[in-house]
């Protein structure tokens, strides 16, 4: 097993030594694509790489991710570049092998209500990046974390990723009061996924600053070497230059 010791990694995360950025492409598309982003992250001292191998797409016709092959690429590249890997687990049957390859397991928005999955993730010692359900109340979100914790795993990162409202200008409505309330009601680190909250790039800087002001410990951003050619979420992925500018504007450089 070549992944990090979870206890040690968790101490690094909660002490802030892993930095406040989680970034990477929406989906791993090829070795070269992931390597380009990873080299850039290392150059900018970003320590956590997030990329999807199993993609929960609305249409079954859309790109579903590279699956196990993608997980392997994430694992290999993170090992080569010394990055911490984050990727989504969509099927609990993948847990056994993903535990060997990945440092932090993401539970996606659509599975926040999957109580049997929450319980199973409570039995691993892997840090879990738990995304808020598309229409979950803050109370339901905290209860979801409680399902994981109750089984023995308290290594949970709470991720606000916007909720569904009537508003159409943004992909979801970023709920910053959730961030402030999570900091008040729980002791878990909180990350704001700006890319999936906003679904657009032009207001990322002010919303990144606002997220940090509301108490977010970390920000999550999608970065792709050529966003216009991306196989998923092309509109919201930052190119390397745009990502650099955001890091600069939030004082991460
Ligand atoms: C993702 O993070 O890749 C994703 C699909 O986001 P969410 O689960 O928040 O919709
Ligand atoms: Mn995405």
From TrEMBL:
Gene Ontology molecular function, alphabetical: 3-deoxy-7-phosphoheptulonate synthase activity; aldehyde-lyase activity
Ranges where the DAHP synthetase I/KDSA domain occurs: 12-246
EC class (word): transferase
UniProt-listed Enzyme Commission number(s): 2.5.1.54
Residues in coiled coil: none
GO BP field: aromatic amino acid family biosynthetic process
InterPro entries: Aldolase_TIM (IPR013785), Class-I_DAHP_synthase (IPR052899), DAHP1/KDSA (IPR006218), DAHP_syn_2 (IPR006268)
Keywords recorded for this protein, A-Z: Transferase
Origin: domain of life: Bacteria
UniProt cross-references to Gene3D superfamilies, sorted A to Z: Aldolase class I
Name of this chain's protein: 3-deoxy-7-phosphoheptulonate synthase
Organism of origin: Lacrimispora amygdalina
């Amino acid at each position: 097993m070549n992944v990090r010791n979870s206890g040690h990694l968790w101490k690094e995360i909660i002490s802030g030594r892993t930095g406040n950025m989680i970034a990477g492409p929406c989906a791993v598309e090829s070795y070269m694509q992931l390597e380009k982003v990873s080299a850039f992250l290392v150059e900018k001292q970003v320590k956590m790489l997030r990329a999807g191998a199993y993609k929960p797409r609305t249409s079954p016709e859309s790109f579903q991710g590279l699956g196990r092959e993608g997980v392997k690429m994430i694992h290999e590249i993170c090992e080569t570049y010394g990055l911490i890997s984050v990727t989504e687990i969509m099927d609990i049957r993948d847990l056994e092998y993903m535990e060997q390859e990945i440092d932090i397991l993401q539970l996606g928005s659509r599975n926040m209500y999957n109580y049997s999955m929450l319980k199973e993730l409570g039995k691993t010692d892997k840090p879990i990046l738990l995304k808020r359900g598309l229409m979950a109340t803050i109370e339901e979100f905290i209860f979801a974390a409680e399902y994981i914790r109750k089984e023995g795993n308290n290594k949970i990162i709470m991720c606000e990723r916007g909720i569904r409202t009537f508003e159409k200008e943004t992909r979801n409505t970023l709920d910053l009061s959730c961030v402030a309330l999570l900091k008040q009601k729980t002791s878990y680190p909180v990350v704001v996924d700006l890319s999936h909250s906003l679904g657009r790039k032009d207001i990322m800087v002010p919303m990144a600053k606002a997220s940090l002001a509301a108490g977010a410990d970390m920000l999550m951003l999608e970065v792709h070497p050529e966003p216009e050619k991306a196989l998923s979420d092309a509109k919201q992925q930052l190119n390397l230059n745009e990502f650099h500018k955001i890091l600069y504007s939030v004082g991460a450089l």
